[in-house]
Design goal:
This protein has about 400 residues and is of the alpha+beta class. It is built from 13 helices and 20 strands. Helix content is about 35%, strand content about 25%. It binds flavin-adenine dinucleotide.
Length: about 400
């Protein structure tokens, strides 16, 4: 078909620029390059939290869902992750703040693993390696310093060069500068809380079980890692996390041993810190508009949730995967290849689907966080009784774990 002058895209250097070298930005670049597009990725290689070379673990770990695993598998990245770096989770135990308890098991759902625990640095290793084999990707190890709109193109400015692109994907995290420069709103609510993470060596085997305790104002999760190790993610109010971060490593261990009537010690024995603790501020946020005038928001730049359900990165990876789904339709792909990635229909469809998929996860995560912080008469009874009831309904439990794993 002949192109009309109105459909001829202006000259550009790349089909799209992706701002941010977080996991979401890297995966989105691989998705676009696999579909034949020429992509510029701009971002500094993320900071490693591993303090000394002999420290075996990165304290930033993610629980990856089945959907995320499939995204990485399709990009031929999953198989490159060393097997001693992935911990499958066969069981999950959750305790309420009184008698409530929930237990999920992979065998009840007919799968090998409910989720996989993997370190952030390990994901970066395999994603950067995959990018090196993708001729369609050019990576600039730089920060975006300026962004300006010139007719139907964006000029992306770094200290290295200025590039003209029809589409900018903002994958630059919750504080996205790209989002701000594009004038897109973000409804952010600060939980006035932090998630403290640290890796521990344990005495008793974890048997691939992830455990989580809701203590009213804090949520403590112990995620299994390869070998005799666990990753602690303890979300707590800011004044508590600030006090916790002032403690020495062994004082932190004593503090952990003191919560939940010694539950952690009972399951894991004595904890030995592996590396130091880090605190991350916790927020809830969502952008009302995820696509406007050639700027697309992805990952935390579009939506941020409390880590209590371990879903933030999973949602970001699904943002990228949905793009892959839309581009696998041959008709759509041909249209996009002809019109360029600025195809409004593509992004409107993408935005509709992603908002619909993210909304329930946001609602549930924020709701759970609120429910466990409620200090009203009867609230403790309701939440713990609710957990007990769900735990006794195998059909509902299976459905719940299938929803979480999809
Ligand atoms: C304690 C804690 C535990 C969590 N656990 C889980 C879990 O188990 N499972 C899960 O799914 N999610 C989890 N999450 C959520 C998860 O960490 C985030 O959702 C995820 O990291 C978001 O990835 P992203 O790539 O969108 O953003 P980010 O990881 O924030 O990456 C953004 C990147 O953009 C770069 N950047 C910023 N500005 C610029 C610029 N101007 N130019 C170029 N680059 C720029 C940054 O340097 C950064 O590298 C957890 C979060 C916390 C706080």
């Amino acid at each position: 078909m002949q192109m009309t002058s109105s459909t001829v895209p202006s000259p550009h250097d790349y089909d799209a620029a992706i701002v941010g070298c977080g996991v979401v930005g890297l995966v989105a670049s691989l998705v676009l390059a696999s579909a034949g597009f020429k992509v510029l990725v701009v971002g500094r290689r993320p900071q490693q939290f591993v303090a000394q070379p002999e420290q075996r673990f990165d304290p930033r770990v993610f629980a990856l869902s089945h959907r995320s695993q499939r995204v990485l598998d399709k990009l031929r990245v999953w198989d490159n992750i060393p097997s001693d770096k992935v911990q499958p989770v066969s069981d999950m135990q959750i305790w309420g703040d009184t008698q409530g308890q929930l237990r999920f098991s992979a065998s009840d759902t007919g799968v090998e693993s409910l989720t996989w625990i993997i370190e952030q640095s390990c994901l970066f290793e395999v994603l950067f390696a995959a990018m090196r084999y993708q001729p369609g990707i050019e990576w600039q190890d730089a920060k975006v310093e300026g962004l300006s709109r010139e007719r139907d193109m964006w000029a992306v400015v770094t200290n290295l060069k200025t590039s003209r692109v029809p589409i900018v994907i903002a994958a630059d995290g919750a504080q996205s500068q790209t989002r701000r420069q594009a004038g897109l709103d973000f409804e952010l609510r600060d939980y006035s809380a932090e998630g403290v993470v640290c890796t521990y060596q344990i005495e008793k085997p974890h048997h691939g079980t992830a455990r989580q305790w809701f203590f009213g104002d804090s949520v403590l999760a112990m995620l299994p890692l390869p070998g005799p190790h666990v990753s602690m993610v303890w979300s707590m109010p800011l004044h508590q996390s600030q006090a916790f971060m002032q403690l020495g490593p062994m004082q932190m261990v004593d503090r952990i041993a003191g919560v939940g009537q010694g539950a952690v010690q009972q399951w894991y024995g004595h904890l030995q810190p592996v590396g130091s603790a880090h605190a991350f501020s916790l927020k809830h946020g969502v952008a009302p508009v995820w696509f406007d005038q050639g700027v697309v928001l992805m990952g935390d730049a579009a939506h941020v949730i409390h880590p209590l359900a371990g879903q933030g990165l999973n949602l970001g990876l699904e943002d990228a995967a949905e793009l892959a789904n839309l581009l696998t339709s041959r008709k759509r792909l041909l249209a996009v290849q002809r019109l360029g990635l600025a195809d409004e229909q593509l992004w409107r469809a993408w935005e509709r689907r992603r908002k619909a998929a993210c909304a329930p996860v946001h609602f549930l995560t924020d709701g759970l966080h609120t429910l466990f912080r409620l200090d009203l008469p009867g609230a403790t009874w309701v939440r713990n009784k609710g957990m007990q009831i769900v735990n006794q309904l195998p059909m509902l439990k299976r459905w719940l774990s299938q929803q979480a794993m999809r």
